[in-house]
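#struct-pred
JK: can someone run the complex with adenosine-5'-diphosphate? inputs below
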Amino acid sequence: MIKVTPGATVGILGGGQLGRMLAMAAVQLGYHTHIYCPDEKNPAEQVTDKISRFDYEDEKALIGFAKAVDVVTYEFENIPVETVNILSRYVTVFPSAEVLQISQDRLHEKKFLNNINVNTAPYAPVSTMNEAIEALKQIGYPAVLKTRRFGYDGKGQAIVRTERDVQRAWQSLNSCEVIVEGFIDFDMEISVLAARGQDGEIKCFDPAENIHKNHILDLSIVPARIDPVLRKQAVEIAHHIVSELNYVGVLAVEFFVSSSDPIFRVNEIAPRVHNSGHWSIEACPTSQFEQHIRAICGLPLGETSLYGRAEMKNLIGDEILDMDIYLKDPDANFHHYGKREARPGRKMGHVTRIFPHILPK
Ligand SMILES: Nc1ncnc2c1ncn2[C@@H]1O[C@H](COP(=O)(O)OP(=O)(O)O)[C@@H](O)[C@H]1O
Ligand SMILES: [Mg+2]
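RT: done, structure tokens with the ligand placed:
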């Protein structure tokens, strides 16, 4: 157990909006922050004490960074495992390289989940189109082909409805490390943010209901509008996952919920704070960002109960141009990530509304 006390420096790999909000939470708790991010003009640079702008493969720069900080974490799961291995020789990194390795690869992730008795969609790893066609005979149509690595916001996936779709789908992925996944006819997607401290203490946030638009999260509604018994089950599964991983920090678990399917299936896990937990900044005594910093620094975890129903709307691309409407709305908590260019599909900010008079059941 390492205790990182206020006044020390938290190192964060990645300078996107998640890195930015992590840094803001670290500062609130009295820490300095140091961002490591190869990109120019990243959202976190406005709020951090220090920034190292080098590649994730630059060993010399990584060692310099490791020596300048007291603990390291990351805001996205696509950093090379080797980067974390190098840093780990000089400084503690949470979550661990082992966790990163599992969550970077959809095959490792699903194997791990099934091994600890957590259900997923049926799946099969394939490396050629013919193998995919064979696997689909078992799994059935419709199905989803997904690249094992580097997918996000629905990228690196293709739906196949009949065998005729397979060739086009296969070519669109441009990869030979693929999994075929049975299509889940879900009624709703939900996620649970679970936190585990260095001492093994676990606290979960209420399940959020997530509504996507063009494969990008549009709206999170908390608590998810499902039977409270199912909400409790989802929290128990998330609890089980972080416990089995000996995880330290905040982890997101995405689920499919289907009334025609009695099995609760986990879609994926993300070893980091997550877009579907942004409402926790205003809706709970402790936000997901503060919880993550508390966990990695060896502080007690904070309270996660809701002040009331909450809704978080992502502001994607041009939607940020409506900011004056949100600024005039007495219920809206508006966040701008400081990105200058509102490109289509780009997450520019978000707005959270709390309804304290509607208390969750
Ligand atoms: N097996 C599946 N059945 C039905 N819908 C799926 C399936 N896999 C993915 N999807 C849909 O695609 C979205 C993105 O897939 P996901 O695996 O979460 O990838 P990522 O979020 O990394 O892009 C999911 O949130 C869900 O809406
Ligand atoms: Mg996802």
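RT: quick notes.
The chain has a mean pLDDT of 96.
The domain at 122-182 is CATH 3.30.1490.20 (Dna Ligase; domain 1).
JK: thanks, will look after standup
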